[in-house]
Amino acid sequence: MPLDVTLDPAEVGLLVIDLQNGFCHPEGSRARAFGADAVAKPRAMVPHALGLVERCRALGIPVWFTRQVHFPGDRGRARRRIPSHLDRRGVKLDLCHQGTWDAELLDEVKEHVRSDDEIIVKHRASGFYNTRLESVLRMSGVQVLVVAGTTTSFCVDSTIRDAYARDFDVIVPAECVADTDDAAHEAVLASTERFHGVVTTADELMAALRPETVRPGTG
After folding, report:
1. GO molecular-function annotation terms (predicted)?
2. What does the alpha-carbon distance between residue 24 and residue 174 come to, in Å, rounded to a whole number?
3. How far apart are CA 94 and CA 28, in angstroms?
4. How far apart are CA 200 and CA 198, in angstroms?
5. Omega of the bond prior to 218 within 30 degrees of 0, cis?
6. Judging by beta carbons within 10 Å of its beta carbon (0-12, 13-18, 19+), is residue 93 exposed, middle or buried?
7. Can you list the alpha helix ranges (DSSP code H) found in the chain?
8. Are 24 and 73 in contact (CB under 8 A)?
9. First vs last Cα of the chain: how many Å apart?
10. How many CA atoms, within 13 angstroms, populate the side-chain half-sphere of residue 121?
11. C-alpha pair distances (Å), 187 with each of 92, 157, 191
């Protein structure tokens, strides 16, 4: 739907989810398990997300990145009695284990991370679950959360829903999120548009921001 509101950049924050080797690199664990096609759409999305990072920075909008980090001996996961989505598919996936290259941000993403940027390390799908994300957003005056990254139907969707439950306004530029499954991707965009926020484009987002409200000294 059109983004027919005026946004003050002082109330906006950008969250970029899990642009990591394990999810997006052709030598990462997802590609090794499912083939290069499994990371094609996430890789194609990365330049759009990074372009959005720079456009937001130019308006003084703060940016946060998340990294999914798994512990190989995670006893919480081991207690589950219902097989995981990977177990049901018979897939062994050592994804983004702590301390591995797989868990690191893509090299091209690291180039856009500033020394004072906060990277939110999470151990479950949502960027809010057992992290300090909500606190830093509140302390930064963020009311409107722009969400980019991967995977649309899991980590992105979980974060969108948690943001909505915490009374943040959610905006999702469609070209800045990606999934390995087109149907799942489109279903999340549809449910977001129906319930949780606005699905738009980066250009429409920029048009809704008023340059005259940019924070002094941050452009």
Report:
1. hydrolase activity
2. 17
3. 10
4. 6
5. no
6. middle
7. 21-24, 29-34, 40-58, 75-78, 85-88, 107-110, 133-139, 157-165, 182-191, 202-208
8. no
9. 28
10. 9
11. 26, 10, 6
Say which CATH topology domain 9-213 has: Rossmann fold (3.40.50)
Residue tagged 């941000």 (tokens) = 105
The residue behind tokens 């809010």 is 128
**Side chain identity, residue 102:** D
Please give the DSSP secondary-structure letter assigned to residue 41: H
Q: How many CA atoms within 13 Å lie on the side-chain side of 145?
A: 30
pTM to 2 decimal places: 0.90
Instruction: Please tell me the predicted confidence (pLDDT) of residue 213.
Output: 45
Helix or strand or coil: residue 17? Answer: strand
| Structure confidence at residue 219 (pLDDT) | 45
Indicate the domain borders of the chain.
Answer: 9-213
